[in-house]
């Protein structure tokens, strides 16, 4: 429908995402709106999210690639840099965006964020506090949430 | 081959004044992200991401792993100084709002080069007979016979001639070589200089256009190879500084100049200008990442961001970029101007 004027860049990125997906990441455009992607990221091994399948939504605004994509977790996740609405605190989604980055690089960065939570620059304050006060326990909670909410059902 | 185009170009461009401002050296590989510590309360504070994968084709094509063949440079040699290039557009009238960066149109040409010193291979090696003296060594390609002259603390004069500001330091000799690819050159024993007398500052700064090390490699083609008229010098000149590295001196090339039939060209490195075969060899995974504009992923790259010199845009997207962002897509350095490059091959 609204797909008639899709820029070549978005078509190319989509084709490449489908033909050569990054390991542990899948992204497929919605049929109604080719700027809207259903994304799945597997929890990285050695992280509290290992074994989890996390759903996200990604939207390419009109100004893309001059403006960053909008990305949000749909699956609940216990992470100091992801809040309960699924919003992600990631510099390349904000002021460090560059049009040379792509959907693929953004999703790889989010995957990396799962491997390296940073409670010093938190989005979810209480999670970050928990992380700093008792990391072992916070990691346990994150694992528990992964089992409960991200079991891939 | 090169003769006709050079002759034609001689009409287009004027020889340069003796001193020509050099381009700044290439920046280090881009830092991918920076700390930012301010946390505005209502919107979520920015989080410093774990290093995301580098922007496509940023690092892969910084340096060409395979030296170009001796007859063609893939970095464009720009005739210097630049008189207005033939295709230069008149400056657009001032627009309202902040002045946008302007796009400069440049003709890049492949110039036939007879001698090519591989600039990453220059070293200073101790002279076995006198370890305090250092001998200059490097790898080079030559399509004709020729000779090399090494100058220490040299200054450029008229017509790309060089002379040392310390003439007593050395007796100048022209060291002959024969044609051949990937040859090794080493200065003859005894002709090196003990650099221990010089301060590090003197060695590492091209102060007042004095370069601590200048290698003047000159083709001396025989008549059947095209070496004809009297004043047809064809030289590649490599200007370098010396930097201390683990108690040793390392050569760092600042620029290379081509002096061909009375025209001076300066190598301006544009990151991202690769030919397709090199791109294929260098990084097969990145398939066409090395050639397409990073914004539309469609058109060929023909516009470089200045001053960082990342050739990453097509001219259309460059126009968009200059109104929407002031940062280079590859390294995020501020954009001062955009330079459109048209690669024109020399006529046969
Ligand atoms: Zn483009
Ligand atoms: Zn740049």
Properties at a glance:
heterodimer; A: 153 residues; alpha+beta; Ubiquitin Conjugating Enzyme; 15% strand; globular; B: 348 residues; Herpes Virus-1; five-stranded antiparallel sheet; 4 helices; binds zinc ion
Description of the molecule:
The complex is a heterodimer of chains A (153) and B (348). Chain A is built from four helices and four strands; from the N terminus they run H-E-E-E-E-H-H-H. By secondary structure, chain A is α+β, with helices and mostly antiparallel strands. Chain A has a single domain (8-149), classed as Roll (Ubiquitin Conjugating Enzyme), CATH 3.10.110. A four-stranded antiparallel β-sheet of chain A has the order 1-2-3-4. Among the domains of chain B are: 115-267; 289-343, Herpes Virus-1. Chain B has helices spanning 2-12, 200-204, 276-282, 315-324, and strands at 77-79, 103-109, 115-117, 123-127, 130-142, 146-156, 162-164, 174-177, 180-186, 193-194, 210-219, 234-245, 248-260, 263-267, 303-306, 310-313, 337-344. In chain B, the strands form three sheets. In chain B, strands 1, 6, 7, 8, 11, 12, 13 and 14 form an eight-stranded antiparallel β-sheet that branches. In chain B, strands 3, 4, 5, 9 and 10 form a five-stranded antiparallel β-sheet that branches. Chain B has a four-stranded mixed β-sheet with strand order 2-17-15-16. The longest helix of chain B is centred in the N-terminal third of the chain and has 11 residues, at 2-12. Bound molecules: zinc ion (2 copies). One zinc ion binds at residues 305, 308, 310, 328, 330-331, 333 of chain B.
- Determine the most extensive contact between two protein chains: A-B, 36 and 31 residues
Helix coverage percent of chain A: 25-40%
Number of helices of chain B: 4
Task: Work out the helicity level of chain B.
Answer: under 10%
Annotated CATH topology of chain A: Ubiquitin Conjugating Enzyme
Tell me, briefly, the overall form of chain B. Answer: globular
- The number of distinct helices of chain A, counting runs of at least 4 residues, comes to 4
Oligomer status? heterodimer
Tell me the strand order in the biggest sheet of chain A: 1-2-3-4
Shape of chain A: globular
Tally of strands of chain A: 4
The total strand number of chain B stands at: 17
How would you sum up the major sheet of chain A?
4 strands, antiparallel
The CATH superfamily of chain A is Ubiquitin Conjugating Enzyme
Pairing-aware structural class of the strands and helices of chain A? Answer: alpha+beta
Q: Unreliable segments of chain B (pLDDT under 50, ≥5 consecutive)?
A: 1-101, 274-288
Distance between the first and last residues' Cα of chain B: 6 Å
* SSE pattern of chain A: HEEEEHHH
């Amino acid at each position: 429908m609204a797909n008639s004027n899709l820029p070549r860049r978005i078509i190319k990125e989509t084709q490449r995402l489908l033909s050569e997906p990054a390991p542990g990441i899948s992204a497929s455009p919605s049929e109604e709106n080719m700027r809207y992607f259903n994304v799945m990221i597997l929890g990285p091994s050695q992280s509290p999210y290992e074994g989890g399948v996390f759903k996200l939504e990604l939207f390419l605004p009109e100004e893309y690639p001059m403006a960053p994509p909008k990305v949000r977790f749909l699956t609940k996740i216990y992470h100091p840099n992801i809040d309960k609405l699924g919003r992600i605190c990631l510099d390349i989604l904000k002021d460090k965006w560059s049009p040379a980055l792509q959907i693929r690089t953004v999703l790889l960065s989010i995957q990396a964020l799962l491997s390296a939570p940073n409670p010093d620059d938190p989005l979810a304050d209480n999670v970050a506090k928990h992380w700093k006060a008792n990391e072992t326990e916070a990691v346990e909670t994150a694992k528990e949430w992964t089992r409960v909410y991200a079991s891939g059902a | 081959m090169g003769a006709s185009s050079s002759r034609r170009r001689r009409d287009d461009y004027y020889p340069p004044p003796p001193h020509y401002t050099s381009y700044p050296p290439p920046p280090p590989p881009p830092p991918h992200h920076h700390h930012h510590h301010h946390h505005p309360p209502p919107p979520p504070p920015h989080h410093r991401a774990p290093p995301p994968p580098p922007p496509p084709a940023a690092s892969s094509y910084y340096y060409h792993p395979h030296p170009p063949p001796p007859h063609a440079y893939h970095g464009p040699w720009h005739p210097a100084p630049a008189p207005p290039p033939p295709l230069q557009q008149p400056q657009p009238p001032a627009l309202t709002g902040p002045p946008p960066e302007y796009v400069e149109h440049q003709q890049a040409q492949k110039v036939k080069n007879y001698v090519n010193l591989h600039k990453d291979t220059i070293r200073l090696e101790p002279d076995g007979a006198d370890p305090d003296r250092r001998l200059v060594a490097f790898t080079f390609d030559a399509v004709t016979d020729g000779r090399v002259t090494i100058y220490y603390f040299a200054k450029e004069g008229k017509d790309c001639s060089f002379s040392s500001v310390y003439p007593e330091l050395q007796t100048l000799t022209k060291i002959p070589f024969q044609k051949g690819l990937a040859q090794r050159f080493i200065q003859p024993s005894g002709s090196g200089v003990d650099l221990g007398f010089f301060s590090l500052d003197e060695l590492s700064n091209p102060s007042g256009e004095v370069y601590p090390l200048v290698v003047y490699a000159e083709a001396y083609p025989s008549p059947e190879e095209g070496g004809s008229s009297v004043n047809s010098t064809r030289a590649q000149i490599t200007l370098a500084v010396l930097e201390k590295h683990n108690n040793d001196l390392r050569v760092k090339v600042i620029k290379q100049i081509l002096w061909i039939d009375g025209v001076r060209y300066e190598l301006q490195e544009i990151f991202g200008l690769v030919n397709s075969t090199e791109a294929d060899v260098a990084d097969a995974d990145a398939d066409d990442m090395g050639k397409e504009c990073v914004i539309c992923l469609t058109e060929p790259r023909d516009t470089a961001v200045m001053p960082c010199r990342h050739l990453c845009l097509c001219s259309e997207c460059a126009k968009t970029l200059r109104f929407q962002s002031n940062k280079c897509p590859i390294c995020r350095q501020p954009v001062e101007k955009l330079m459109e490059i048209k690669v024109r091959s020399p006529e046969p």
